Amino acid sequence: MFGHSHTTVHKGFDNVLIILYGILVLIGWLTIYSTSYKPGSDFELFSLNTYYGRQLIWILISVATAIAILLIDNKLIQTYAYPIYIFFLLLNILVLFLGTEISGAKAWIKIGSISLQPIEFAKFATALALAKLFSESKTSSEKKMIWIYAFILILIPAGIALLQDDTGSALVFFSFIILFYREGFSPFIIFLGFLAILLFIFTIYFNELYTITFLVIALIISFFINNDKKYITRNILVFIGSIILIFAVNYAYNDILQPHQRQRIDTILGKSVDPKGADFNLNQSKIAIGSGGFFGKGYLKGTQTKLNFVPEQRTDFIFCGIGEEWGFLGCVALIAIYLALIIRLITQAEKQRNAFVRVYGYGVASVFFFHLFVNIGMTIGLMPVIGIPLPLISYGGSSLWGFTILLFIFIRLQYNNN
After folding, report:
1. Cβ atoms < 10 Å from Cβ of 261
2. Reduced to 3 states, what is the DSSP secondary structure of residue 417?
3. Which of 24, 90, 218, 219 registers the highest number of CB atoms within 10 A of its CB?
């Protein structure tokens, strides 16, 4: 009882998640204001002519949406999980025909002066559909098919995102693998997925002979680790499949892809230099973060971001502004807040008696973790520059609105389900 009184607020809603949400949104707005700030300029709080003014309006819209979600009946959310998923799929298909291209991706719907990116809403819709799928009682034959259905649910929106030329959003849907693992998906199959990615990178970055040599060494080591006949047979089959994949990747890369597509892959993997494109963004990002030192330059005192050296500094590279002004300590503090949010999501999900709420909670945690890991990794050079926002902090109405809905649906579902 004592613990419960400290983890809930009005009507039993999770005040810890709500407070963490508020802190991140506030940090985001302050950083957006800082990157837009020019000494002597007028302060126009609600002006649509300023980034911080537009973002504040989106914050108010998101807060209103959050309150509305908290008033919805839990049963309605569960009942309409599939229709919600289908609606946002259809909306995203519509974007392919009627959408507007922004920053190279035809992923936006323009309504007057407002641009919306519907794929951001497909994330919470997919989490709802997966929660519905995994929570329904299944016959033994249906349980064997559940993983196929689950992969179909994530492959469809991921495929639509790729057709919109939004690779970053497409990859986000594969973060639900974390949810799959919690629900009993074979760790060996997840290992095969990572192995395939690794072989793809090795084959393109080095060559097929180098990659095959690496595989042979790994196979020999596996014999010494476990010489059980069953494991040896399995490892040999994986080896043969890997060889086929290596030659398929090599053929596709050299004989199917266009030169500009190969150049894009080479740049992402660091195989070639693109000084005016992705490499420029990354180099400026590293300079901005590094210039902050341990304690940072202080709020409103960043120079790299103020002088627009960092491209996309309010969206994909907003972490640079935090690194420059608040330094290493500020970066660590921000990451700690995110980790507190993700850990809270997982621990609360595990407490749920309702399987739908548990699965959805893991879906929310998966999306937040993927965005955090890839976005920060991208700005410091540990991940390729694929362009996905920092949750609740990056400038943009669709992203903020989408993450708000994603999180507050879980906060609402927790009520009466603990």
Report:
1. 11
2. coil
3. 24
Q: Are residues 52 and 44 in contact, defined by beta-carbon separation less than 8 angstroms?
A: no
In which residue are the tokens 């393109």 written?
Answer: 204
Strand partners, 114: 111
Residue keyed to tokens 């507007």: 100
pLDDT value at 319 more than 60: yes
Name which of 394, 405, 402, 404 is nearest 28 in CA terms. Answer: 394
CA-CA distance, 64 to 68, in Å (whole number)? 6
Residue listed under structure tokens 């800082």? 34
DSSP, collapsed to helix, strand or coil, labels residue 71 as coil
| 258/269 Cα distance (integer angstroms) | 17
Strand order in the sheet with 100-102: 100-102, 105-111, 114-116
Q: Which helix (H) or strand (E) holds 57?
A: helix 51-70
Q: Which amino acid would we find at residue 35?
A: T
Q: Which amino acid is at 355?
A: A
The SS3 call for residue 106 is strand
Backbone angles phi, psi at 56, to 5 degrees: -65, -40
User: Cβ(401)–Cβ(33) under 8 Å?
Assistant: no
Evaluate if residue 19 carries a pLDDT over 80. Answer: yes
Residue with tokens 């760790």: 187
% helix / strand / coil in the chain, to the nearest 5? 70, 5, 25
Token pair, residue 264, equals: 């894009």
Give residue-wise pLDDT tens across range 240-267: 888 888 888 888 877 777 776 677 677 6
Q: Are the C-beta atoms of residues 78 and 86 closer than 8 Å to each other?
A: no
Whether residue 124 contacts residue 405, with contact meaning beta carbons closer than 8 Å, is answered with yes
Among 253, 235, 243, residue whose Cα is nearest residue 212: 243
Taking the whole predicted model, whether its pTM rises above 0.85 is answered as no
What's residue 9's pLDDT?
Answer: 37
Q: Which of 252, 285, 253, 247 shows the shortest CA–CA distance to 269?
A: 253
Q: How far apart are CA 292 and CA 314, in angstroms?
A: 17
